[in-house]
Amino acid sequence: MGARVESSGQRRAQWLRRWGLTVWFTTFVGVQVLTFPFLSAHPPALAWSPELLRLLPWLGGVGLGMGSLFVLEGVGPRVLAPADPDLGAHLLGDFGPRLRGYSWARRTRWLFDATLCWFVAGVTTIVGSSLLGHALAEAASVPALLDGWPPLLRLLVAFLLTDVHSYFRHRLEHAGGERSWMWRRVHRYHHEPEVMDLWAGMQVHWLEALLVFGPPCLLLSALGFATWELLFLFTLFLLITATQHVGSGWTSGPIMGQIFQGPDAHLRHHSVVQRDRLENLADCLTLWDRLFGTWVPPRPGFRGPYGPGDSGPGSDAG
């Protein structure tokens, strides 16, 4: 009886490990996507008005999604440990205690980093790019080419444009043996954590938001995207990429992991080994890595070590 109970627990943990993150992703990202046509039919104003209240369910969904992802991160060591002995030893003997051992001072600093990057610099970049794009389009009489397109098709085009731009931006940050200014002064900071989880994933330089969202938002606004649409795209993008740094044993599963960059693919990108950091560069879709030769399938059981490794300031690693 004891063996059957243990076997049942292992099967349950293995199922959760394979599909738990997929269920989360389908629920929260799916709800956000399905919200877009409603908001397109009833576009909210961006000045204070009753119409702005239409944004509250959308913003509430984003907040609930991120909060529940932190819960998944926290319960991962206990829930997933029975999946196999090696994973259990790692989660309960290494990852779990280190995650719980983060000081609140460190967590506060990381939260400040993320807030400064995504919700101060990010929103400022999007709104500024939108205003500039609209002004340039009006001055140059650029037609709003995407007007009249079905809402979900508009969202898909904008998402693909933003994601492919972010792929090449990320590739440029790691180019040239990681000796560029973009790596040394901006992106290396994100690779410094040696324990990967949602908290460490929030360690980002504020300039990242400008590099990620500035150019595509400028172009999309010139093509007719409203500011609120760009802000919606911004939150959807962040929600999709949030899973990448979940380090407590969850995986993207056999379906989602083939389409989106999940933790099992992205955590390898945070390896101390430089050649690993030059792979799996896309932010959302694995499509770009597959098309441009930087995709490497997830390495089963890869758990680091993580960090900037052999390309620190002054390093000759190539």
Provide a descriptive summary of the structure in words:
The structure is a single chain. This protein has 318 residues and is mainly alpha-helical. The longest helix is centred in the first third of the chain and has 40 residues. It is globular, with a radius of gyration of 20 Å. The N terminus and C terminus are likely disordered.
Keywords, separated by commas or semicolons:
single chain; mainly alpha; disordered N terminus; 318 residues
What proportion strand? under 5%
Average the pLDDT over all residues and give the rounded result: 84
Low-confidence stretches: 1-5, 312-318
Sequence of secondary-structure elements? HHHHHHHHHHHHHH
Shape: globular
Q: For the record, give the distance between the C-alpha atoms at the N and C termini, rounded to a whole number.
A: 56 Å
Number of helices: 14
- The helicity comes to 55-70%
Radius of gyration: 20 Å
Structural class: mainly alpha
Keywords: Membrane, Transmembrane, Transmembrane helix
Organism: Plesiocystis pacifica SIR-1
Subcellular location: Cell membrane
InterPro entries: ABC1_TM_sf (IPR036640), Fatty_acid_hydroxylase (IPR006694), Sterol_Desaturase_Related (IPR050307)
Give a topology summary.
Layout: H1 2-41, H2 55-80, H3 85-100, H4 104-140, H5 151-173, H6 175-178, H7 181-186, H8 198-201, H9 207-222, H10 227-241, H11 256-259, H12 263-269, H13 274-277, H14 287-292
